Amino acid sequence: MFKSIRHYLLGKTLAIRETAEEKLTNFQALAIFGSDALSSTAYATEEILLVLALAGAMASSHLLPISLAIALLILMVAFSYREIIYAYPQGGGVYNVAKENLGETPGLIGASSLVFDYILTVTVSVAAGVAAITSAFPSLYPYRILMGLLVILFLMWINLKGVRSSGRIFSLPTYIFIATILGLLIIGIIRVIFGILPKAAILTDVTATALPLQALSLLLILRAFSSGCAALTGIEATSNGVRAFKEPETKNAGKILLRLAILLIFIFLGIGFLSSQVGLVPAQSETILSQVAKIVFGKTPFYFLTQIATFLILFLAANTPYAGFPRMVALQAQDGYWPKQFSLLGSRLVFSNGIVALSIVSAILLLLFKGNVHTLIPMYAVGVFLGFSLSQLGMIFYWKKQGFGKHLKSVMINFIGFIATGTVFMVVLFSKFIYGAWILLPTILILLFVMKKIKKHYQNVEKILSLEETEFLRVLPEKIMMIVFVSKLNRLAIETALFARGFKPGEIKAFHIAFDEKEATELKNEWEIRFSEIPMDIVIDEFREIIPHALNYIRNMEKQWKESGGEKVIAVIPMVVPTSIFDNFLHNKTAEELANAIRKDPENNAEILENYIKVH
Amino acid sequence: MFKSIRHYLLGKTLAIRETAEEKLTNFQALAIFGSDALSSTAYATEEILLVLALAGAMASSHLLPISLAIALLILMVAFSYREIIYAYPQGGGVYNVAKENLGETPGLIGASSLVFDYILTVTVSVAAGVAAITSAFPSLYPYRILMGLLVILFLMWINLKGVRSSGRIFSLPTYIFIATILGLLIIGIIRVIFGILPKAAILTDVTATALPLQALSLLLILRAFSSGCAALTGIEATSNGVRAFKEPETKNAGKILLRLAILLIFIFLGIGFLSSQVGLVPAQSETILSQVAKIVFGKTPFYFLTQIATFLILFLAANTPYAGFPRMVALQAQDGYWPKQFSLLGSRLVFSNGIVALSIVSAILLLLFKGNVHTLIPMYAVGVFLGFSLSQLGMIFYWKKQGFGKHLKSVMINFIGFIATGTVFMVVLFSKFIYGAWILLPTILILLFVMKKIKKHYQNVEKILSLEETEFLRVLPEKIMMIVFVSKLNRLAIETALFARGFKPGEIKAFHIAFDEKEATELKNEWEIRFSEIPMDIVIDEFREIIPHALNYIRNMEKQWKESGGEKVIAVIPMVVPTSIFDNFLHNKTAEELANAIRKDPENNAEILENYIKVH
Fold it and tell me: Using the beta-carbon criterion (under 8 Å), do A577 and B588 form an inter-chain contact?
């Protein structure tokens, strides 16, 4: 039944394996790898303004200088990642780069930061996408958390169903967004030049007015800068997908990465410029981008188009971790760092467990942070910059192995990249520590601990199961003791005893737990008439606590049997199994529970032989 | 962990079996067997008034005649049950009497009516007990359902813990109730005689005023009578506990039954008399008994004592099914009519499953009927009278077997009892049909069907397991085919194959499900090098849907093996078992799921041999 529901929801099992992925044209690639990065312009400027607003209306004049600094950072990071693209065309995720060049622990820290990033990309993009919609349709504002959860559910569903990534469809929302935003910027700038752009009306629910003014300290500027660094999230995406580009792969990928960076800088600075011209102040129920668009376009269809395009690109950005996260976890699970279940393709040829885990955790985050982008940004930014700086550090060590001398330009680029991103990481971590950035540290530590513990367990199992080392155990029946568990003297018990005896084990015993002395004597007498050669041991317990007695008996027998030269014990359990669900309720599961208890008991090494009578 | 929580909640396992129950003095017995019957006076009069109120204020003059008719009925039923006490001193429940004298189906109908009654006794008594409290403390009224659920939870808890029935403690609440009610009646009657009992103030939330007036038809009178018959519930209790009386048991029990009936009649008529004198009208938030007590005592401590005593006796009444129901179900489960689990004593030597089932169902009823006594009464009354009339009918057949002539007086009594209770059953059923009495019919039919179906299943199993009929199966290894399931070529797989081969089965095969052709060939080659004599069959499925392939293979092999003269197939399953919970999550349960699927599959008769490697 469960299966048919699943089939109904997820469609027929895919018959054909997606083998060769289609190659993307540069035009498509920009859209597909760019959605994550470009979509962050939907909230980055607002995050800067939110911090600056704390120091009063005048402080917003710092918006442009801060934005320029971030634009410079974008350029440095883009050039640094172009080096990674050349060095790791097969996929330059921080896990690979750090593990290969820095060792296991840095690799795992990189992996943990990626887990952190992927999850937050979903949560932040969904929250920001919903905010784009509720800005245009304020009556939906009270339902924003529900809407966010539905979007995540939808993402989970389409990904479990298995999206066939089609470059054409997926590049559409990005280009709609680029077109509308460029239109917005151009018209806005023209209106500024001609001096016909109105000033913003002061909104009633301005977030910052409720808070006491702060002095415009250096710390505040650093905090504003840290918030704005959210603009960089997703810029590394291209370096993970080099294989999807047309030949020459690395050259195309590098080119697209730079073009993307320039586009990103242009949009980000443009939004910053218009915001500061109009004198916008962040509001709770309307995003800055929505305010800008409303002032530039008025409440025309172009305004609504902007909001919908913003939602769509953010939806696409929220979808990218669904491609990356399950595959990364599957790879790491193959390396033994995550439960093996994550490395198994489901019947739809997707890593279902990863998709479900990603959805659940990001939905929980969305709930915990009440769908509020601002409170999520500090964590998001700090996680992303940890990944950036680890990657750049890894690259420095990579070039060292290749020989610094031969790659001086690349070394310099990655070195500058490392200094820049490392510094920003520290700035974000400290300036945003109490605003949520601290969460990164325990999370990384816990993930690191868990991944290492999992690895250790699998190594242990692998060692136990390995074909080398010692001799294989060859246990012959004469070295085996069989213990037949008898609950009643019925056909099943007798046939089970006959069955066990047929194997001619070295020793065979019967075991029974009796309610009282009388029952014990009666059963024993009857048993001895039928099986004089199978001695029966009986424990009397009026409470019939079967399992503890049985485990105890098995442990003792195993010990005795090994002491007297035996090798193995087999618990032989007769079972009446009803094959219908209704009848299932009419039988207590004592035999099944006993088998399970013996199986899980660390203090015995008995095998189990189950002898059935099935009742239809 | 679960066990220690259980121990904490339910105390240490009882070390000593309660063997000989203490014998009750007549004084104690009246209280213990009387609580159920006497407590119904807390609501019976109100139920009559509720119906009469529909015909306007004047109709309440019919209260006394109706009450007198019910008093007569009480006498008849008491005398009829005294005959049952003499005839069935070992326990004259309707199940016994009807089964022995009328046959299986009437016995099961009786059993179903008892199930119905026991559950409703809990629900009605708890609801009425809570009503007694909320009448005295109206601020608690909004929490009545919660309070009722807590009372049921408490009843479940003390009964799971195992109440040691102590005659002294249990008779106390009943006598407090008897004393306060008698005090109430005597003072009330004196005040009536001296003409100093005030008339009732009309309460604002009078239930009936909201409904349109109805003509005082015969049907209405019959409905009022039917409602009042709730006074008889519980009167049969004595006949189930004859063995608890001191010698001469039956004589004492009969005597107490009659005394109880007279006391019941006196209290019931007294409350009716006072209510009609004061001109009380039923109200939603205050019971009639509370109104009577408030008028007679004023808002003195005596009033509150009356309400608390009423609660206590109703609590005791709600507790009686906890003694009766689990034992009855256990007995019927031993007869094969209920799942065997109900016949097992728990570690506290109580029939825990019965106690839990009773609590859950009565709690659900309380929720469904919103803790409202009035809506429950029609069901309750019709169920009780079905039991009464079946018992009396059974007794008539009993006397027929004994010879009518020798027991003429008894025959007459039971005959009158049958005519009276049978008529009342029909009256209640039809006059209250649309008010809830109809629920009895489908319930009885369903219970009857279920009980018969369960019995049939157990008979079937018993037949299969019986020691007679055919020869026992003696399967020797040469008639056995072993199928070793291989998921990987590791130490476990090899040792399992060696282990299976050691038994020298008639045939041995290995089975593997491969992901693709390459994996299949590699494994097969490696396998053939090690085990040339164990042919390996491989199915290729890129989706690795293991279980359907495995079941299919087993079914086919079993068919082939039997066709070529074999007798049995054993599925040999290697299992890696982590003994810690954490590690448990790191292994997919494929092997366990496979074993379970083979076990439950109706289309194979394979046994299972599990070979473990335990990972600590």
Answer: no
Whole-angstrom CA distances from B534 to A27, B498, B501, B527, B539 are: 58, 10, 9, 9, 16
Inter-chain CB proximity B503 and A499 less than 8 Å: no
**Distance from C-alpha of A292 to C-alpha of A309, rounded to nearest angstrom:** 15
Contact A481, A566 (CB under 8 A): yes
Contact predicate A485/A574, CB 8 Å: yes
The closest CB to that of B495, out of A340, A454, A473, belongs to A473
A568-578 and A607-615 beta bridge pairing: parallel
In this complex, do B614 and A605 lie within 8 Å of one another by their Cβ atoms? yes
Cβ-Cβ pairs closer than 8 A, A with B, add up to: 162
Rg of chain B on CA atoms, in Å:
33
> What is this structure's pTM?
0.72
Tell whether ipTM is more than 0.95. no
Chain A nearest-CA residue for B341: A588
Q: How far is B455 from chain A (nearest CA, A)?
A: 10
In a domain, A513, yes or no: yes
**Nearest residue, CB atoms, B465 vs list A492, A545, A605:** A492
A472 to B494: CB separation less than 8 angstroms, yes or no: yes
User: Which structural domain, as residue segments, surrounds residue A541?
Assistant: 477-615
Assign residue A146 the CATH number of its domain: 1.20.1740.10
Q: Is B471 among the domain residues?
A: no
CA A251/CA B18 separation, integer angstroms: 87
- Among B429, B457, B485, residue at a domain's last position: B457
- Tokens coding A229: 């660094």
- A610 beta partners: A573, B608
B571 to chain A: which residues are within 8 Å by CB? none
Given a cut of 80, is residue B583 above it in pLDDT?
no
In terms of pLDDT, which residue wins out, B435 or B323? B435
Domain-ending residue, one of A401, A425, A457? A457
pLDDT in tens, A198-251: 776 555 445 544 455 666 688 889 999 999 999 999 998 888 888 888 888 899
Contacts of B576 in chain A (CB under 8 A): 461, 465
- CB within 8 Å: A475 and B502: yes
Radius of gyration of chain A (CA): 33
